[in-house]
Amino acid sequence: MERVILGFSGGIDSVTAARFLSERGLGVTALTLDTTGDVELVGRARAAAAEVGAEHVVRDVRDVFSTQIVDYFVLSYVAGRTPSPCVRCNPLIKWRYLIEEADRRGARFVATGHYFNIAERNGRFYVSRADDRTKDQSYYLWGLSQSVLSRALTPMGHAVKSEIKARFEDKRESMGLCFLQGRSCREFMERRYPAASRGGEIVDKQGRAVGRHDGIAFYTIGQKRGLDGVVGRPVVAIDAERNRLVVGDDADLYYETLEIGECNFVDEEEFLTADDIEVVIRGVGRNPEGRMRRAERIAGGYRILLGGAAWAPAAGQPVVFYRGDRVIGGGITTRFR
To answer: What residue ranges do the domains of the chain occupy?
Structure first.
């Protein structure tokens, strides 16, 4: 029997993925990555694996997860950036250890409960949007390598979330950032890095003090709420060096040029020459209207000229590029203008 190593939290999606894979005649080994030492979560996963008849394996990855993902998350905010930890976790933690476990056991395939598909074109593999657009998670998977995608199965690619949820009554669903463990983002960061709550000035574009903030780590570009002494004006810049926020007008937040680094592209030539590329940025801001006008290489990455302005992009945010349903690549915002 062909075996697949499945990333398994014991939630609705991973349980359903295990059932779909079993129905295809595959032997399922459910791999739970212990990222935080949550004994209850591991126990639930073990019980859920038994329910679906899957072998269950636990791997302790707390140390590498803490340094590669949690520290990255906290220190990015402290430096005035807006990170997306799931984008980083997928290639560096989740899929890495799936492949390692598969190699250890001589398994050909790996899978997760993510909602996405894989498209193959000209011998290359592309992450592709899921059938259920409301649940599609392709945006968070642009960092996966060809070696991973060539071995990945997508059991949830054609699934409809509302139909899946209707089959469960008591099963929990994984929500939010796993390492918060029910705490607010503020509480977590203050415990992890007490200096995150160091207060400072809020200034306008002329540098005049207009209020106080309680830690730049708790704000992002475009934010309007929670600004002491400031009403209705968004954050337009975060000056980490001087520990201050700059507020301005909505009009100050429109940018038509982005610079990105830490990139991964399936086919760079396609990215540089295609004229029908959609640019997607998720977060506080709004996606640019129209298609990308042009991309050019720069030191450390690429400069992107947008077809229409994007509102409130932030350093640290992922920028993902689509042609139709295919993800042709992505990168992390470093500058915008």
So the answer is: 3-180, 198-248, 252-336
Q: Which superfamily does CATH assign the domain made up of 3-180 to?
A: HUPs (3.40.50.620)
Of 140, 126, 135, nearest in space to 87 by CA: 140
Which spans in the chain are helix H?
A: 12-23, 39-51, 62-65, 71-78, 85-89, 95-105, 146-149, 161-166, 185-192, 268-273
pLDDT score for 228:
84
How far is Cα 334 from Cα 323, in angstroms, rounded to an integer?
A: 23
Tell how far CA 9 is from the center of its chain: 17
Two tokens, residue 221: 């570009």
Name the pairing type of β-strands 27-34 and 55-60.
parallel
**Structural tokens at position 191:** 């415990």
Q: Distance between CA 90 and CA 211 in Å, rounded?
A: 39
What confidence score (pLDDT) does residue 167 get? Answer: 86
- Return contacts of 71-74, CB within 8 angstroms, 24+ apart: 73/177, 73/179, 74/188, 74/189, 74/192, 74/193, 74/196, 74/217
Nearest Cα to Cα of residue 314 among 255, 228, 249, 232: 255
Kindly write down the DSSP assignment for every residue of 88-151, as one continuous string.
HHIIIIIHHHHHHHHHHHT--EEE-S---EEEEETTEEEEE--S-TTT--GGGGTT--HHHHTT
**Active-site option among 86, 89, 185, 263:** 89
Catalytic residue (one of 86, 178, 185, 263): 178
Ranges in the chain, pLDDT < 70: 169-175, 284-285
Active site residue 86: no
Catalytic (active site) residue 178: yes
* Separation in Å, CA 52 to CA 46, 85, 161, 175: 10, 30, 19, 22
Residues 228-278 have pLDDT tens digits of 888 889 999 999 999 999 999 999 999 999 999 999 999 999 999 999 999
Is CATH 2.20.28.120 the right assignment for the domain spanning 252-336? Answer: no
Which residue has 């007490």 as its token pair?
A: 194
pLDDT digits (tens, 9 = 90+) for 121-164: 999 999 999 999 999 999 999 999 999 999 999 999 999 999 99
